[in-house]
Amino acid sequence: MTSAKPFWETKTLDEMTTAEWESLCDGCGRCCLHKLRDEDDGTLHYTNVACRLLDTQSCRCTDYPNRHRKVQDCVTLTPEMVATIDWLPPTCAYYRLSEGLPLPLWHPLITGTPDSVVEAGVSAGGRCISERKAGILEDYIVAWPARDPTSSSD
Fold it and tell me: pTM of the entire structure?
């Protein structure tokens, strides 16, 4: 008897339902951190400064349904965008699936618990500061949002 494969192994990002798409988000909060792009050479710099709506401990948006109204530059990922943006962390399920990679073993869809993100060291929770408390973004440039802490090559 074989078990059915999970949706993320059988569907493309375009084929997923809204609920399936939303469930891919592991809740790490890294995409809600501000990024800076060098105007001269295009280099991307990550900061540990979070959107004002992000709870910096739980890494959950405090007003997800109204986020676009409250934060003008809040991004809603789409399958088309995932293929073109360069700032998603290497652990991101959307990025990984778009590249033909499997979900990481710590992903909540695999473990059944959102705590696995924290346990794997992937969450921004407790590692970021709200934009309401931060000063100049350039003072908060960090490298960890662009790394996979579970990868042996990093």
Answer: 0.90
**pLDDT tens digits for range 95-108:** 999 999 999 999 99
DSSP the chain: --PPPPHHHHS-GGG--HHHHHHT-----GGGEEEEE-TTT--EEEEEEEPTTB-TTT--BTTGGGHHHH-TT-----HHHHTT-S-S-TT-HHHHHHTTPPPPTT-HHHHS-THHHHHTT---TTS-EETTT---GGGGEESGGGS-TT-TT-
Is-contact 122 106, C-beta < 8 A?
yes
